[in-house]
Amino acid sequence: MEDKKYIVDLKGLKTDKIEMEYQLEDAYFKAFDNKEVKGGNVQVIVSVNKISTDSFVFRFEFEGHVIVICDLCLDDMSQPVKGEEELKVVFGSYYEDKGDNLIVIPEDKGVIDLSTFMYEFIILAVPIKHVHPEGQCNDEMIKKLNEYMVTSCDDENNQQNDATDPKLDNN
Hints:
Shape: elongated
Number of strands: 8
Number of domains: 1
Helix content: 10-25%
């Protein structure tokens, strides 16, 4: 995503601490072309602390919701997300992701694009399971699922299956 509002000029920082606020909406999420997250509305506050002339700590605090597909009824649903993350940034000769939330950026450029980091932190905060709160799933889809769902087997069916299962034949 190329948007100047997400780019921070680290060399041009006038103070040792700054804070920025972003309101990420549907267009932001759609720009990443992720099939699982279809949109959202998340407020992100980014604090930047300049530790030294070549070292910075970014703190991301976010809260809001993203639009995902319900695993049960397949309708869109609003999934709350909230979290805090930290990113350490140091200058070096070339870009490198060192893991453990440590990024090296080229000193000759001295800028960092926060858009991808915010997106990744938010996506990582989305629970693996997406299910509407009780009673909010699509009723038609739930009825169809219940038609085809096997909820339990009674003993008679189990005994009948055992009698016809060749793997259980003791002869």
